[in-house]
Write a structure and sequence with these properties.
Elements: H1 2-30, E1 45-50, E2 62-68, H2 75-80, E3 85-90, H3 101-113, H4 128-131, E4 155-161, H5 171-203, E5 215-219, H6 221-230, E6 242-246, H7 259-275, E7 297-302, H8 312-315, E8 326-330, H9 345-348, H10 350-362, H11 375-386, H12 390-393, H13 420-427, E9 431-433, E10 439-441, E11 466-469, E12 473-476, E13 483-487, H14 488-493, E14 498-503, E15 511-516, H15 523-529, E16 534-535, E17 541-542, E18 565-569, H16 571-574, E19 579-584, E20 601-606, E21 612-615, H17 617-622, E22 628-632, E23 639-644, E24 653-661, H18 676-686, E25 691-696, E26 700-704, E27 709-712, E28 730-735, E29 741-748, H19 750-785, H20 793-800, H21 807-822, H22 832-877, H23 885-894, H24 901-908, H25 910-924, H26 927-955, E30 979-980, E31 983-984, H27 993-1027, H28 1038-1053, E32 1066-1069, E33 1072-1075, H29 1079-1095, H30 1102-1141, H31 1153-1163, H32 1170-1175, H33 1179-1187, E34 1212-1214, E35 1217-1219, H34 1230-1237, H35 1243-1248, E36 1269-1271, E37 1275-1282, E38 1285-1292, E39 1297-1303, E40 1308-1312
Parallel strand pairs: 3-4, 3-5, 5-6, 6-7, 7-8, 11-13, 21-23
Antiparallel strand pairs: 1-2, 2-4, 9-10, 12-20, 13-19, 14-18, 14-20, 15-16, 15-19, 17-18, 22-29, 23-28, 24-27, 24-29, 25-26, 25-28, 30-31, 32-33, 34-35, 36-37, 37-38, 38-39, 39-40
Helix pairs in contact: 1-19, 1-20, 1-22, 3-10, 5-6, 5-7, 10-11, 19-20, 19-22, 19-27, 19-29, 21-29, 22-26, 25-26, 25-28, 26-27, 26-28, 28-30, 29-30
């Protein structure tokens, strides 16, 4: 036992240390300031109020129209001129309507300033899932706006004032915001109609296009409100077709702790899933009509790793909106943004709001002045203008045959996807097959997807400037106007079949790349080859360029400029071609813009297998305590592919890249042994800065330019169940100069890992914490069922942390159940190693949290009880002294309040008072307030029990200590320290009053902690409720009130030990009997349910388990109350019989074994008055006393002691065999008893003796099938057990009365002969 206890303590200490370290380290890392690369946005805002309609349901909210400009305007005249594209901004949790100013101001500047200057980098295209069955193959030239054009219409930005309410904390507030936004959308469309009608009256012009829909832009919870408004029944059909959300949760709320909030999210998401399904006909066939949400496109933009409030997993549209209508993209992978930003920064970060504003303006159709009607067209614009092409260039995202092309030709029919087979046909002078099955001759490189437009100015190279490159690596250090030839087949023969070019030259204007089937011998041959060559210049993808050194004079740079583009060609892309040419424009030919201060381009043929490195989980774990590294030697592949076996969202990596050499010898420098700084200066001049691309399927792309030292983390965790990306690998791609040698050092950052654990798995920990507490209460309930001392919560946690069992059972058992529940679903099973490891850490963290709560609460209660007992004893010692007379007089005056009727009622029925007050608060005010009342009741009970324990302990300190109860050899039965012939003795079987009160405290402490967690989960909702003005507070959600009422019932009825009465006579699971199983089974099931809810990121479901247990306990107690009434009627009848027959007190009825045991075990344990157990001095009496030890208070005794008495002789044990002691049957009462219990219909007898069982300590004697022993020379008893039946027979020699009692599963009867 000592070793076991030591292991228990070690487990608790480990859990506390782990939880404390994760919490402390994570908070330190999260609170560390992180540099923000965002530029500030400036504006001159004006907010014009919009008059609400008469049918507005709420007057506390308002609608405004934004106007950008510093000049004062006429509001009415401005509203009269409304003719743009309506856009409604919805603020988030605690947000202001004025947060629209940044994006609205930039959209105004974008409209008047025109589109972006045209670039020729590759644009992202549809994936196969995004393309679906759509016939949209690309965007024509006349669809997107060019720099020479003007946007067709401007954006009119509206915003709603939601009073800064915290919609992320309360589901009722979220529903009210949704209702108002629906009304605001309808009002905005009506306002446009009113303005157009007013203008038509003045100008007689009705040729304008009236807006049919409103674009919704929501931040944080405003994005979810936008989606909720779309499926609202009061929204007009087609009123919303485009939604853009900025850092908005879609899958779950950031704090899904309130049941109504979680249910509202579930209801809205279910409606969206059904909205994209075609409703079937009555016969079950699918309709040919469009789904209800078939025209709605949703774009979700999340902030990345620096957004601590909304993680990418929550912002994902996966499983809610199909890929054909939805796009999820992170700010770090967005074009022209490339930054991870905070939750609020996403609203004002200039790089992002500018890109979003121009993208929204690109949605406007040039013909109608309103957004495109086709949903695929709108999604194509978002994909092209927001998503980077890098994931498709490197094969991380699958491309589609209907890839989006930035059409620059005059016709869309020439826009084809250049697959490897098509490139081979081009090289051979063949035909390209179009989508309709016809063929079209290739008319030159200009007609291929990635060729530069004809309008691009370029000087044709002369053969005199051509350079033959024999090495696999080519370097360009200046815009020299030369064309460099590289032999593809020669490089492929050496195993180098892939080509990558990294440069800072702009495609089409600074550099061009072509693939040639052969090399022409003269100018005429080259002209003929122009029909067969393939240009791949626009296959170059843009990468963010890091800060470059300012150049004082041309050629005076001291380091290489950072690259801004990468061209990646696989072996399939090069198939069928012989040569690759890199043409660099001469410096004077760059039109309209100055050339870059320093030019660079490095291209290389390489074998991708040479640069690929896989880091195993054990290698990554070893780097937690020791920095690991590797050397990338010179002439290495330009692309170094690092594959992390464990996601960097689980184990963030600190990456450091140092240049050790750059192909120079000591003779290059003046010194024979150059210093490290001199060597670094030379290498910076020779090698371009490293660029790191990080790809993680759930979180997307993140680029780190000019990286030398950085902690790399991704905003995802594959250990979370439900992602369609089953792989947990994170790809880290290094673009490094092949001329230099690098030392790459990597080390897992434990502080960053702790912060990611808190951010990604805090919801799991919240639900698992409730599960751990349920497991602890299960042990308490099971101890009561086995008549063992009720352990404290801390002891239960210690027991559950014992390794290997039951730690593995509680930590990993629910995981197996969860796998079984979801393996047949649509989710992809996450990687087993990470899932088990992270879930185990969640379980350990939760145990540590419960242990800390238990220790703190015990410390507080013990301190308060000790202080009160000390003051009480001291006050008694001061009684009668003169200096306490004044204080006693004051207390006497104050005690007069106890005579009031209200006070006397409360004192007489405290449980009823708590129930009434808590219920009123739960249903009419707020559930958290009702739970606080329940917590106060628990705290008062815990304090009273500890005070009584302390007083009893002080009074018995000088008395002999009663012997402690130990474990008997029987099955789960409490024995006694003193034994006779292997059986408990009669003198050492009692439980002291102090021990009883200590167990009361342990049981109440478990309830206190459970309901404390429930109250904490409601606290965010309470804060949001308090923040609202007093007159605007509405009734709480019925779901919250109903579940909270179940918690109140659990707290009131489960606070008494009698609630733990066995609910099942014998429950057998897997062959193991769980006799007398009661609430412990429900607690175990509730713990597993909460654990699974945590894995599903739905901690609010823990309220379901708490409420169900409360209602089950209530139903059982109500049933027990009815049974108790029947016993009361029986005792009253026996009292009348005794009085009528005039029996003396000493001849009072001594209840026979039949009546006593049957009533005790079959009906209820607390149906017999407490005085029964107190009159007994036997093991049976001790057994019953322990069953009633929590209610041994004089006030609870309602029956007279003279009614029923047990035999003082009790039960005796002779030489290991059970002998029933004498229970004399009074002959005058026997006929009446038999008439009462055996009426003509036997059904009453069945319900009286249903599910009868023997006390626990009889199990040791059941091996004997027959015993015939004479006791005291008067009675003989025979005990026999056969299967599920129990037969007991007794014979009274003196009275000549024999009775047999048979209890079986089929029938119960009493026979007297």
């Amino acid at each position: 036992m000592g070793l076991m206890s030591r292991s228990f303590r070690i487990g608790v200490v480990v859990s506390i240390v782990v939880a404390g370290w994760i919490l402390g380290s994570g908070l330190v890392w999260l609170l560390t300031p992180v540099p923000n690369g965002c530029n500030m946005t400036f504006m001159y805002p004006t907010y014009i109020p919009i008059s609400p309609p008469l049918n507005m349901t709420s007057n506390r909210y308002a609608i405004y129209l934004y106007h950008e400009g510093w000049k004062k305007i006429d509001n009415e005249l401005h509203l009269l001129k409304l003719s743009g594209v309506p856009v409604l901004f919805i603020p988030g949790n605690g947000g202001s309507y004025k947060q629209v100013r940044s994006i609205a101001a930039e959209s105004d500047r974008a409209y008047y300033g025109g589109p972006f200057e045209e670039s020729f980098f590759q644009q992202a295209g549809f994936t196969s899932q995004e393309a679906g069955s759509s016939s949209l193959g690309g965007l024509r030239k006349d669809v997107l706006y060019t720099a020479q054009e003007q946007y067709a219409n401007k954006l009119d930005w509206f915003t709603v004032d939601l009073e800064g309410e915290h919609s992320a904390m309360d589901g009722r507030i979220l529903e009210e915001h949704t209702d108002y936004v629906v009304q605001a959308i309808n009002r905005i469309l009506d306002r446009y109609k009113e303005s157009m009608e007013a203008r038509s009256i003045q100008t007689k012009d009705t040729g304008e296009f009236l807006p049919k829909s409103v674009i919704l832009v929501g931040h944080s919870m405003g994005g979810f409100v936008a989606r909720a408004a779309v499926v609202h029944p009061q929204l007009r059909k087609g009123a919303v077709e485009t939604i853009v959300t900025l850092s908005s949760p879609h899958l779950l709320a950031p704090l899904p702790l309130q049941p109504s909030l979680g249910h509202f999210f579930t209801r809205v998401n279910d409606a969206w899933r059904k909205g994209y399904e075609t409703p079937p006909t009555r016969t079950g066939r699918k309709r040919n009509t469009e789904p209800p949400l078939g025209r709605v496109v949703v774009v979700s933009v999340f902030g990345g790793t620096q957004d601590y409030q909304v993680r990418s997993r929550f912002a994902s549209l996966e499983g809610i909106v199909p890929p054909t209508h939805g796009l999820t993209i992170g700010a770090p992978g967005m074009l022209n943004v490339w930054l991870s930003m905070e939750h609020q920064s996403i609203l004002w970060c200039n790089q992002l709001v500018v890109q979003v504003a121009h993208t929204l303006l690109q949605l406007v159709d040039k013909k109608t002045g309103q957004p495109f009607d086709h949903p695929q067209m709108r999604l194509a614009v978002f994909v092209a203008k927001l998503r980077s092409a890098l994931p498709q260039v490197f094969g991380w995202l699958p491309s589609s045959s209907s890839q989006l092309l930035d059409g620059l030709d005059d016709t869309n029919e020439n826009r084809v996807q250049t697959t490897g087979e098509q490139r081979r046909l081009v090289a051979e002078g063949g035909k390209l097959v179009k989508g309709d099955g016809t063929s079209k001759l290739t008319e030159g490189a200009e007609n291929i997807a990635f060729s530069c437009p004809k309008s691009t100015r370029w000087i044709v190279e002369s053969k005199e400037k051509d350079l033959e490159v024999e090495q696999p690596t080519v370097t360009v250090l200046a815009m020299d106007g030369r064309r460099r030839w590289m032999d593809i087949q020669r490089m492929a023969a050496k195993g180098k079949s892939w080509f990558t070019l990294v440069t800072n030259l702009a495609p089409c204007t600074g550099v061009r790349v072509h693939l040639w089937p052969e090399k022409a011998k003269n100018a005429e041959g080259e002209k003929a080859l122009n029909q067969r060559l393939l240009e791949v210049t626009m296959k170059m993808a843009q990468i963010p360029a890091g800060p470059s050194q300012a150049q004082i004079e041309p050629g005076g740079q001291t380091e290489q400029p950072p690259p801004s583009g990468v061209l990646h060609l696989s072996a399939l892309d090069l198939q069928g071609f012989r040569y690759l040419t890199i043409s660099v424009a001469p410096r004077p030919t760059v039109s309209g813009r100055p050339p870059p201060a320093a030019s660079m381009a490095v291209g290389q043929f390489y074998n991708p297998k040479d640069g690929k490195t896989v880091f195993s989980p054990w290698w990554l774990l070893s780097s937690t305590y020791k920095q690991q590294g590797l050397i990338i030697k010179e002439n290495h592949p330009i692309v170094a592919d690092f594959s992390m076996a464990v996601s960097l969202g689980t184990l963030p990596m600190s990456l450091e890249i140092n240049t050790t050499s750059c192909g120079s010898t000591d003779s290059v420098l003046a010194k024979s042994k150059p210093t490290e700084s001199e060597l670094m200066s030379l290498c910076k001049l020779r090698c371009f800065p490293p660029v790191v691309l990080v790809w993680d399927p759930p979180s997307g792309l993140e680029v780190f330019p000019n990286l030398y030292h950085e902690t790399i983390s991704v905003d995802s965790s594959p250990a979370i169940w439900g992602s369609r990306y089953g792989s947990e690998k994170t790809t880290v791609l290094l673009l490094v100069d092949p001329h230099c040698e690098y030392r790459v050092s990597m080390k897992v950052s434990l502080f960053a890992a702790a912060s990611r654990f808190l951010l990604m798995h805090s919801l799991q920990v919240a639900a698992v914490t409730v599960a751990v507490l349920f497991f602890a209460m299960m042990r308490q309930a099971r101890a009561w069922e086995l008549d063992a001392p009720v352990p404290s919560v801390l002891n239960c946690v210690e027991s559950n942390m014992m390794f290997p069992f039951p730690f593995i059972t509680f930590a990993l058992g629910p995981l197996a159940v969860y796998v079984m529940l979801t393996v047949f679903g649509t989710h992809v099973v996450p990687p087993l190693l990470s899932f088990v490891a992270v879930s185990s850490f969640c379980y350990i963290f939760a145990n540590g949290a419960i242990a800390v709560l238990a220790i703190c609460s015990m410390t507080v209660f013990y301190t308060a009880a000790s202080l009160q007992v000390f003051l009480k004893i001291r006050w008694q010692s001061w009684e009668g002294r003169w200096h306490t007379r004044g204080l006693r007089w004051l207390l006497t005056c104050m005690s007069g309040c106890s005579t009031l009727q209200v006070v006397r009622t409360v004192r007489a029925k405290p449980t009823l008072t708590v129930a009434v007050v808590a219920t009123v608060l739960v249903y009419l005010v707020h559930p958290a307030l009702g739970l606080i009342i329940l917590l106060l009741a628990h705290a008062w009970s815990c304090h009273g029990a500890l005070c009584r324990y302390s007083l009893s302990h002080r009074q018995q300190k000088n008395l002999p200590r009663p012997s402690k109860r130990g474990n008997s050899p029987g099955k789960g039965v409490e024995g006694w320290k003193g034994q006779v012939d292997g059986f408990p003795s009669l003198e050492s079987s009692g439980t002291t009053f102090g021990e009883t009160q200590l167990e009361v405290f342990h049981q109440r402490q478990g309830l206190l902690l459970l309901h404390l967690l429930a109250t904490i989960m409601f606290m965010p909702s309470l804060v949001a409720w308090i923040q609202r003005p007093g007159m605007d507070r509405t009734l709480p959600s019925f779901v919250d009130s109903f579940l909270s009422f179940g918690l109140i019932l659990h707290g009131l009825y489960a606070s008494n030990s009698d609630a733990n009465i066995s609910l099942f006579s014998k429950l057998r699971l897997t062959g193991l009997p769980l006799e007398y199983a009661g609430l412990s089974v429900f607690y175990a099931v509730a713990g597993i349910y909460c654990y699974i809810s945590g894995l599903a990121l739905a901690p609010y479901r823990a309220f379901h388990a708490m409420a169900v247990i409360g209602y089950i306990t209530t139903v059982y107690r109500l049933r027990e109350k009815g049974v108790r009434g029947k016993v009361s009627n029986l005792t009253e009848w026996m009292t009348r019989q005794r009085e009528e027959r005039g029996l003396r007190e000493e001849e009072s009825v001594k209840v026979c074994e039949i009546l006593g045991v049957a009533v005790h075990t079959s009906l209820t344990a607390n149906a017999l008055p407490d005085i029964y157990a107190n009159k007994l001095n036997s093991p049976v009496s001790s057994h019953m006393q322990r069953k009633r030890r929590w209610t041994l208070e004089p006030d609870n005794v309602t029956y007279p002691a003279s009614v029923v008495e047990w035999s003082e002789a009790g039960w005796s044990f002779l030489k290991g065999q059970i002998l029933y002691s004498v229970f004399e049957l009074s002959l005058p009462l026997l006929p009446g008893i038999l008439d009462t219990f055996i009426p003509s219909p036997p059904t009453k007898w069945l319900h009286i003796f249903q599910a009868v069982r023997l006390p626990d300590f009889w199990d040791s004697a059941l091996e004997s099938t027959a015993t015939d022993t004479r006791g005291q020379g008067t009675q003989a008893y025979n005990i026999q057990l056969t299967g599920p039946s129990i037969q007991r027979a007794g014979y009274c020699k003196e009275k000549e009365v024999a009775c047999w009692w048979t209890v079986s599963e089929r029938a119960q009867r009493l026979v007297v002969s």
